[in-house]
Amino acid sequence: MLLVVEQFLNGLQFGLLLFLLAAGLTLVFGIMDFVNLAHGSLYMMGAYFAATFVMWTGSFVFGAILALGATLLLGIALEFVALRHFYGRDHLDHVLATFGLILFFNDAVRLIWGPAGLALPLPGWLTVPIQIMPGVFYPSYRLAIIVVSLLVAAFLYVVVMRTRLGMLIRAGASNREMIGALGINIKLLYTLVFGLGAALAGLAGLMQAPILTVQIGMGENILILAFVIIVIGGIGSIRGAFLAAIFVGLIDTLGRAFLPDLLRKILSSAAASTAAPALSSMLIYMLMAIVLVVRPEGLFPANKR
Amino acid sequence: MKDQLNARNAVVLLVLAGLLLLPLYTSMSGNVFALTLFTRIVIFALAASSLNLIMGYGGMMSFGHAAYLGIGGYAVGILAAEGIGSGFVQWPVALLSSALFALVVGALCLRTRGVYFIMITLAFAQMAYYVASALSRYGGDDGLTIYKRSDFGGLINLSNRVQFYYLCLGCLYGGIYLIWRIVNSRFGLVVQGLRSNEARMQAIGFPATRYRLVCFVIAGTLCGLAGALLANNTDFISPAVMYWTRSGDLMVMVILGGMGTLFGPVVGAIVYLVLEEFLSQVTEYWALIMGPLLLLIVLFGRGGIVGVLGRFSRG
Question: Quick check: is B58 in a domain?
């Protein structure tokens, strides 16, 4: 029981983290019609920035805020210098151009921070376990991730659905020519949205940094998961990304935690120990395949154009 | 393809003849490294050509093509590890398993279009990657060393560098001939028609998905062959072969050389891998140059090298 609660929370935490990543990806795709593979690189940069700034300032919170700002600026700069020339081009061009950016960022990180990974130590007040239920303790840092991610999700909802900026974003997603004709500065809007997406990716990266090691290529595996999420959720739909992210986070975590034991009951233990790791890493993709067979446009497709 | 002497055809002819005569040069100059490099290039040219069949002619932007390299390679590696060294068994198994994987993946992915297709093919290739990493019996993450290359009896000795190079080159030229025949057949015209206007083709009565799927399977099988060659070339197979950056590399080769042109992927593979080799000798951080270079190529180099040459020669 204790393990189930703990793993459930782990899954929720992972799912929310994935949502931060997927939200930026789906926002950029939904509004600019731009496929950004380098999103994972921004996640990685967020983690590296955090590790560096926390070391410089000596404060976790302050360093994290600086890192968030740095990723935001990096995203805006990236859009301004390179990516805005690719809007309106073929998706394949986006894939290739941002693939080039991934190569660039990986080697840039290797040049600046060296090939070895970094560790981001947690401050003392975030390492104490918190009692969430009688007899059930949970690491306070993971709990903090859950709370922050939920707050960000709520913030995102309010911004997109309840503010003028959000109105423009939604209008841009449904008809970009029209909103331009109405005198809105689309270029600025696009830059802002891209920066917002970058900041979300950076936030995910810096929050994940203390749990995993900060290393080159850390953004690539999780980027694929974010892709799976927006495909399951329906590209361009933030609500879909949210639900799909939690779904994927839970299935992945619970699958890894309980599938080996489950298989051991059916198969011999030798066969189970070989099959379980392969099967649990395939779980997400099988889920995606099922969704595709049933609903090729995702579970919660965005506004139909 | 008209038989006239223009810049594009001249370059293509030069490349094809150059590849054919390369062992002559290396044996005279004793430059073994060039032969090793070009064996690799020829193998990747075959893989890129197979990707070009679906990407350039079929309009199916597969971002998971490296999975077939891995499957073909693992078929050879696993059979070798289990003591079955005969190439007459290994290679058909490599082709069949690639074809089977392409059939399953294609049947699912072809339900989607556009950017969904790009992402789904990517996700399935990653799945193959993770499965290979979990194969602890066959090395898992660390990969699998192949102690003996595929044995073809007295027919051909794969351990001989020159013979192996010509085998690879034969497979490449054979593959390109096959693609040429496909592209100019009724089947190939239907697939190209589907790329241009699917609704119209369906209205005429062609079952779109079935045609695409067959094309997808052919390309996957051809890439499986490249995988079998690759495993023999490196005497080693690891999940890294299937990693998604490999799929990206293949895509870049196709675009760089010229998507939808018969010899574009060959030119692209040569330029990309030679450039990579050259840059990595100049600096350890070669991707710092390669990455932005890619951006510029995508931005300005429409139609790839072969396309630019064609435009140039048309005046």
Answer: yes
Full residue range of the structural domain in which residue B94 is found: 20-247
Which pLDDT band holds residue B218 (cuts at 50, 70, 90)? very high
* Percentage of chain A lying above the pLDDT 70 cut: 99
Q: CB–CB of B40/B97 below 8 Å?
A: no
Residues A162-178: what's their mean pLDDT? 85
- The pLDDT of A214-228, averaged and rounded, is 87
Cβ-in-10-Å burial (0-12, 13-18, 19+) of A85 comes to: middle
Mean pLDDT of B119-142: 86
Predicted local distance difference test score (pLDDT) of residue B5:
60
pLDDT in tens, A50-84: 999 999 998 889 999 999 999 999 999 999 998 98
Q: Is B150 exposed, middle or buried (0-12, 13-18, 19+ CB in 10 A)?
A: buried
Which residues in chain A have their CB less than 8 angstroms from residue B255's CB? Answer: 92, 96
Helix (H, G, I), strand (E, B) or coil at A136: strand
Q: Which residue has the tokens 């072809």?
A: B110
- From B218's Cα to the closest Cα of chain A, the distance in A is 22
Rounded (10°) angle between helices B66-81 and B32-52: 120
pLDDT at res. B148: 87
Selected residues 107-146 of chain B with any CB under 8 Å from a CB in chain A: 108-109, 111-112, 114-116, 118-120, 122-124, 126-127, 130-131, 133-137
> B241-260 b/e with 16+ CB inside 10 Å = b?
bbbbebbbbbbbbbbbbbbb
Q: In sequence order, what are the residues at sequence separation of 6 or more whose Cβ sits closer than 8 angstroms to the Cβ of residue B283?
A: B289
B311 contacts chain A (CB < 8 A): no
Question: Would you say residue A304 has pLDDT above 50?
Answer: no
Three-state secondary-structure class, residue A265: helix
User: CB distance from B240 to chain A under 8 Å?
Assistant: no
Mutate to test the interface with B, among A39, A84, A99, A225 (most CBs of B within 10 A): A99
Is the Cβ pair A95, B118 closer than 8 Å?
yes
Q: What pLDDT was estimated at residue A12? A: 94
pLDDT interval class at B9 (50, 70, 90)? confident
Residue-level pLDDT at B315? 47
Domain map of chain A by residue range?
9-122+141-294
Q: Using CB atoms, which residue from B124, B135, B295 is nearest to A97?
A: B295
| C-beta atoms of B112 and A105 within 8 A | no
B181: tokens are 């025949």
Distance separating alpha carbons of residues A8 and A20, to the nearest angstrom = 19
pLDDT of residue B137: 83
CA angle A304, B107, B229 (to 5 degrees): 125
Judged by DSSP in three states, B186 sits in helix
The total number of structural domains in chain B stands at: 1
pLDDT level of residue B314 (50, 70, 90 thresholds): low
Query: What is the rounded CA–CA span in Å between residue B282 and residue A93?
Result: 28
Taking the Cβ of residue A287 and every Cβ of chain B, the question of whether any pair is shorter than 8 Å is answered with no
Residue B218, in any domain of the structure: yes
Average pLDDT, chain A: 87
pLDDT bucket at B4, cuts 50 / 70 / 90: low
What is the rounded CA–CA span in Å between residue A210 and residue A148? 15
**Does residue B266 fall inside a structural domain?**
no
pTM of the full structure:
0.88
Q: From residue A140, give the alpha-carbon distance in Å to each of A9, A182, A214, A292, B202.
A: 12, 48, 20, 37, 58
